[in-house]
Amino acid sequence: MALLAGDLDNAATKFARADEIYAEAAGDAEVDRERAECHVLMGRLAHLRGDPETARRWFGAALEHLPADAAGEVWRLTRAIDAGRGLSASGLLPVGEFGSPDWARCRTPVVE
């Protein structure tokens, strides 16, 4: 919610803590997917802060644990950064669905 509200410092703190927690439980497929979702959000945050290199690194980290349909979306985000474009709204990884282990619920687009 902090990211949606534009509170980038608060969002960064929360995402960093979430990443630490997910790292402690790494190895479980569901946890790894949730950590990847966190990395996508961290990439979006870096992009909003004007740091495309960090955004690319976070998106790359996310790709390690995402299913093919979500990975395609992350590749599109990476290509948008490479082309100097803004990031499109998420279809499979909506910002408001962070932490949801049910990927089927993540199919509703969020307006950014």
Kindly, what is the distance between the CA atoms of the first and last residues, rounded to a whole number of angstroms? Answer: 12 Å
Structural class: mainly alpha
- Number of helical segments? 4
Principal-axes geometry comes out as: globular
Helix content: 55-70%
Rg (C-alpha, Å):
13 Å
Please tell me about this protein's structure.
The chain is mostly helical and 112 residues long. It has one domain (8-107). The protein has four helices and no strands. The chain has helices at 8-24, 29-48, 52-63, 68-82. Helix 1 packs antiparallel against helix 2 (29-48), helix 2 packs antiparallel against helix 3 (52-63) and helix 3 runs antiparallel to helix 4. The longest helix has 20 residues, at 29-48. The radius of gyration is 13 Å and the shape is globular.
Give a short overview.
The protein has 112 residues and is mainly alpha-helical.
Describe how the helices and strands are arranged.
Elements: H1 8-24, H2 29-48, H3 52-63, H4 68-82
Keywords:
mainly alpha; disordered C terminus; globular; 4 helices; 112 residues; 0% strand
